[in-house]
Fold:
Amino acid sequence: MPRFFFDFRQAGERVADTQGLELRDVEHAYLEVFTAAQEMWSELLKQRRDPRRCFFEVRSERDEILFVFPLQEVVDSCIDRKEVALKRTFEQLAGTHNFARRVRDEFAQEVQVTQQALKVSQELLRKAVG
Structure:
């Protein structure tokens, strides 16, 4: 099984994980770091350290950074996804509505320009024929 290392960072400070954990895959490493972040959140607050500014760098055995896990994800996971989706849908709908209104207004303006050009053309035709 591969070994994963979880280095903790905050405000330029780095606490390197020298032991690591043997886990099945990257997904399990993510779940492990998520659980650790949940457990650390209140402890960091007690130490008057802002957990939102902390993150883990998860490394492989070859010292490659596989992913960065900001502790902010712990709070973000508590957000009601339905509410976020509804807000996003509303914002998209409002954007589409504004776009449609703008296109409608531009189209009406073009119709007026075309009607005016048609009147001028008809007037010129009458003068030429008559």
Observations:
- The beta strands are 3-10, 13-15, 21-22, 54-59, 65-70.
